[in-house]
Write a structure and sequence with these properties.
2 copies of one chain form a homodimer. The first copy, chain A, has 467 residues and is α/β, with parallel strands linked by helices. Chain A folds into 3 domains: 65 residues, Arc Repressor Mutant, subunit A (Orthogonal Bundle), CATH 1.10.10.10; 127 residues, Aspartate Aminotransferase, domain 1 (Alpha-Beta Complex); 239 residues, Aspartate Aminotransferase, domain 2. The first copy, chain A, is built from 17 helices and 16 strands. In chain A, the strands form 4 sheets. An 8-stranded mixed beta sheet of chain A has the order 4-11-10-9-8-5-6-7, sandwiched between helices. The first copy, chain A, has a 4-stranded antiparallel beta sheet with strand order 12-13-16-15. Chain A has a two-stranded antiparallel ribbon with strand order 1-2. In chain A, helix 1 crosses helix 3, helix 9 crosses helix 10 and helix 15 packs across helix 17. The interface between A and B is large, with 68 and 70 residues.
Chain lengths: 467, 467
């Protein structure tokens, strides 16, 4: 065996044994030469091989460090195939929700019956009467000028001053998030996500060949700021993708102080924040919470929003207020989908001009709160001892934590056979941390069918009891 | 200087000097050890560095080869920044076309006044009366079932039997092409494109961190089959992206025999063909030409189509008949834009059901042929001696070749100041091969303004005369 290969194996075994924990600085090249009695070339080659296999990372002007935990236990190949399995799983879950015979507690979208169908269709009719052939051109990226202006006005009402030129209209928030991530990273870069996280973040990271650094979030305070700072200290992080308001799946909203702290922290490390704020309009209380974007002074927060969760399903219109990154995002969009459909942009601009939006949102928030309370109450009667339900103000998700040992991936399969979908915890992490949890979408009409479904879930869970 | 660095520099200089032409096998590691009197480690390290810089490629069980011409003259970094410049240029060209004061001879889209505006708007109105909240779900990928069925019927009329399940509806053909490329490649892979090529292919390749292998196409026969085969022999090609009918910018359509040959050749090398067929409906003659997909027996041709060039601008609806790759493309779409807008899919399905499409297309082809003839005639009177115009049957592009020495990038800038856009040759290649050429979109109404613009172009060209 070549000397460099011996050294490679040795260091790899030391990392596996925990001798060099994730984030530790490895001995320098010179130190290794002295300690191991081998040539500098041998050490360099060994470090290169370890880096190419994802065991270690080099940081310019600093040295070599052990790679984060997620990459530590398996070489890149295995990690990749695990990811593909999650994708298959997400895909299966999404496909199942399409079946109108399935009760979609697993969906991420609210009941579209809650949307102002008649007014939206009136706007679409208006557009069909007014659309001119030139509208295809004038709605190219960054998108419809009137729509961007009305969005800028909505930001202004929240005390956020930004130019309509900073806003890019996209094919839903998912395109906004994906383009944002692409705009600030290169393949191989590290990206901070939270854990649990929206599975779209995991998929985007895999698709763009990035590496995820997961920082825990909890339902009390949201993302762990101290761990976030440690992660920023240790790794060359190129982006941070978080939900700061009504986080999916936990439902947690960061306090204003924590949002300000988050922006300041990321500014200090020059790390762009991709702020996924698709549930922003579904707040509870007297005042809408500010997004983290409110505290952004450097144009380094990319605030992604959407109409899909609060106004209309299927139009596929979202946006990003991208600060200094707006130009780059436009270009990426021109290369990948060219633009958002002109009639859809115009229909939304027409609807927003009617000023019915806020009236609709107020009613929507009330209905969702009522429905969530019903589902929560029914769950309380159906869950085993030791289970808990996170029910935070706003939104329409309930996060159910069963006692350890319960298997919600299995529960998902069993429930599906009974015509009920749930979003199992497995979706929300690259690992196995949440396989005893699941998310319930409580936005659906509360009727005997829904009540029976919660009972069925309770029975299936009870049957899993292992004691 | 370290020994491996000396060897790296030496081999790099040899490649630059043409001692090892692109595609040549380099001396093996053992041979280098003997020839250079250095250690195996030193040679390995040098080869690794050369590979990481794009000078050479390794081929499993075979050895190291000099990288293709495109990568030969510059290390990866420089190639990248050149690409970014092209992107800026493409972006500028696209932005200029948006200005309604500019005569858009540089546009890739036909005059939208030629589209059946009234019937399309009637379809949009129908949709606005019939759309239900559930339509958002039922139009998720692979897309609207009725639309996919009607597309499959149109394929069937051409003798192409494919299941509607093979078809994925996308946000325009650009998304179809990008998802197709992504579905069959990984970053770093080699992709064959033609030269000149649609600039979107260059952008997609850069965005996905792929490497382009350009094979020449000419206006007589299209892509050079012999060079294509040599390229497939030499490089581990993972995809081939071509326009087989009414190629942009040349206007050439491969003969049926050549299309069959192309499919057979790529099948032999197991290379998927991404067939960009967005001008398919703008054929001339008695019968529409078959796409290469017609000869596909392995489901390895991804045929990408669109309504944007022949029916409606700004709806952003295209599709791919993706054969064995359809499932993977659906998943990539679910991760990146989620889906195509439901009302837009429904409006097109409604329009296609009226059976007005073929009547419209027949008239459109006639009008375009007439307009192209007028522009060509005017150009003949305005161009300098030695210039030539490719005017092939069908479509609406004219490809103008000025004598060597003329600079169409400069011409583009000068014409823009006169309120005229053209598509300069620089857009259609990563290199400088076509800087004396430009593309003219002849789909616009032929009036005094257009005639004056052609005269102005002629004058600007005459002013460039250097003799």
């Amino acid at each position: 065996m070549a000397k460099y290969q011996q050294l490679t194996d040795e260091i790899q075994q030391q990392i596996e044994a925990g001798i060099w924990p994730p984030g530790t600085k490895l001995p320098s090249l010179r130190q290794q030469v002295q300690q191991q009695g081998v040539s500098l070339m041998t050490v360099m080659h060994a470090y290169e091989v370890l880096e190419s296999q994802g065991w270690i990372v080099s940081r310019p002007q600093s040295g070599y460090y052990v790679a984060p935990r997620a990459l530590q236990t398996a070489p890149a190949q295995v990690a990749l195939s695990e990811q593909v399995d999650i994708n298959n799983f997400v895909f299966d879950v999404l496909q199942a929700i399409r079946d109108p015979g399935i009760l979609p507690f697993g969906s991420a979208f609210p009941d579209p019956e809650l949307f102002p169908q008649r007014q939206l269709m009136r706007s679409l009719t208006n557009v069909s009467h007014q659309l001119t052939p030139l509208d295809a051109l004038s709605n190219l990226p960054p998108g419809n000028a009137a729509l961007r202006q009305m969005l800028a006005q909505r930001y202004a009402r929240q005390g956020i001053t930004l130019s309509p030129d900073e806003i890019v209209i996209t094919n839903g928030a998912l395109e906004a998030l994906n383009l944002s991530l692409q705009a600030v990273t290169e393949p191989g870069d590290y990206v901070v996500i939270e854990q649990p996280t929206f599975y779209g973040a995991l998929q985007a990271i895999e698709r763009l060949k990035l590496k995820a650094l997961a920082v825990p979030s909890d339902a009390q305070q949201g993302i762990d700021m101290q761990q976030l700072e440690e992660t920023l200290q240790r790794w060359p992080v190129k982006a941070c993708w978080l939900m700061t308001t009504l986080q999916n799946p936990l439902g947690v909203t960061l306090s204003p102080a924590r949002k300000a702290q988050l922006v300041a922290l990321l500014a200090r490390y020059q790390v762009p924040l991709i702020e996924d704020d698709v549930y922003a309009e579904l707040w509870a209380g007297d005042e809408p919470p500010h997004p983290a974007k409110y505290w952004d002074r450097q144009g380094n927060v990319l605030h992604c929003g959407s109409f899909s969760k609060c106004l209309v399903a299927g139009f596929r219109v979202g946006w990003v207020a991208a600060g200094q990154h707006a130009q780059r995002i436009q270009r990426l969009q021109l290369m990948s989908t060219l633009s958002t459909s002109a009639p859809m942009q115009l229909a939304l601009a027409d609807f927003l001009a009617t000023r019915r939006y806020d009236t609709h949102l107020k009613k929507l928030r009330q209905t969702l709160a009522q429905r969530k309370a019903w589902v929560h109450q029914a769950l309380r009667g159906s869950l085993p001892r030791g289970a808990s339900v996170e029910d935070l103000p706003g939104g329409y998700f309930l996060w159910v934590r069963l006692p350890q040992g319960y298997d919600t991936t299995l529960l998902y399969q069993q429930a599906l056979q009974q015509g009920i979908s749930i979003a199992p915890g497995r979706l929300f992490s690259a690992g196995e941390e949440f396989t005893h949890c699941f998310r319930i979408n409580a936005a659906w009409a509360w009727d005997t069918r829904a009540a029976a479904a919660i009972e069925t879930l309770g029975r299936l869970i009870a049957d899993q009891r292992t004691d």
